[in-house]
Write a structure and sequence with these properties.
alpha/beta; 434 Repressor (Amino-terminal Domain); Rossmann fold; 3 domains; 6-stranded parallel sheet; elongated; binds alpha-D-ribofuranose
Length: 336
């Protein structure tokens, strides 16, 4: 089996240059890099990662923790992360917690046990103190979720104002009975921000909040279906449903159609995220687009800076969102 010194000899460079090329480092000329890669291929050289990790106490691996891998929102986020990680010689390991709080902590502990160099949480289900305690001194970034009052860097959009914009849009179309399917509200600041934005949007438009029009969901398509049905069975129906994510909006549309109503003629439905499917369902969904790949890329950039002890220009990154208007909320409301 070829050794690193064999590769170095064939490429005519030093073993440390081979090591730098294999670690994805930039400080090697293109010519040397090419010679090393050709030698690696010719000798079919496989680096001994374990030995290297033990020497340097690094794994070149980061863990990304998602709440629910079946939500297509996350694959675009992860794609953005992968792009940055790969370019810098890191690998991404995925942890799907299925909203299990214990798993969230266990994934953080992989870093403490030196089985990964850092962790990105795309969910923060535990009480904030638990996450802060578990991650003390470790490279960690929280994206699409919030941790207050500590040094943990976060990457997000402005959920509160994006939700207000959506309510304003519905009001501009003549809607006043606007129902809301929230995400889980316990220990979930992201859901709370969107919900508070909905309430503030109604308030700014002098619309009274009606308890019967507010139902708590859990961000799944199945839940959107159940809650959509529930709202359409109310004696006084809403004229619009604002779901806190696209998956729930899509579930609600199915329930509405099954009950014999039409979207948007009988009821408008809007979501949040702009997952790929939302442009293709019938009718195409009006939604808030989150810059998913950019969120993923920024979160990974920040994490790698933390791993390498580099200074961050900011602890809190807020990216722009965009209201995407499609057919699911129709044109101006003709009846109430
Ligand atoms: O965790 C589920 C939701 O949170 C996603 O659909 C997306 O809205 C994210 O921010």
């Amino acid at each position: 089996m070829a050794k690193m010194t064999d590769v170095a000899k064939l490429a005519g460079v030093s073993p440390s240059t081979v090591s730098r090329v294999l670690a994805g480092g930039d400080a090697v000329t293109a010519d040397k890099k090419q010679k090393v890669l050709m030698a690696v291929e010719k000798l079919n050289y496989r680096p001994n990662r374990l030995a290297r990790n033990l020497r340097k106490l690094e794994t070149k691996t980061v863990v990304v923790v998602v709440p629910d891998i079946s939500n297509p929102f996350f694959y675009e986020i992860i794609r953005g992360m992968e792009r940055v990680a790969q370019a810098k010689g890191y690998h991404v390991l995925l942890g799907d917690t299925q909203l299990n709080k214990q798993m969230e902590i266990e994934y953080i502990e992989l870093v403490r046990d030196k089985l990964a160099d850092g962790v990105i949480l795309l969910v923060a289900q535990n009480p904030q103190e638990h996450i802060i305690e578990a991650s003390k001194g470790l490279p960690i970034v929280v994206a699409c979720a919030f941790i207050d009052g500590d040094d943990i860097p976060t990457v997000n959009i402005d959920h509160f104002n994006s939700a207000i914009d959506m309510v304003n849009h519905l009001v501009s179309l003549g809607h006043r009975r606007i129902a809301y399917i929230s995400g889980p509200l316990k220990n979930n600041r992201l859901s709370s921000f969107r919900f508070e934005g909905y309430c503030q949007g109604l308030f700014q438009n002098q619309i009274e909040i009606e308890k019967q029009f507010i139902v708590e969901g859990n961000f799944t398509i199945e839940c959107g279906y159940d809650k959509g049905r529930e709202l359409m069975e109310l004696p006084t129906k809403p004229t619009a449903i604002f779901a806190a994510n696209d998956e729930m909006a899509i579930g609600a549309i199915k329930a509405i159609k099954e009950l014999g109503y039409k979207v948007p003629e009988d009821i408008a439905v809007v979501g949040f995220d702009d997952i790929k499917l939302s442009a293709y369902i019938e009718p195409p969904l009006t939604t808030v687009a989150q810059p998913k790949q950019q969120i993923g890329a920024e979160a990974m950039e920040v994490l790698l800076r933390c791993i390498n002890n580099e200074t961050l220009s900011s602890q809190e990154i807020i990216l722009d969102s965009e209201l995407i208007v499609r057919e699911s909320c129709g044109s101006h409301l003709r009846h109430t």
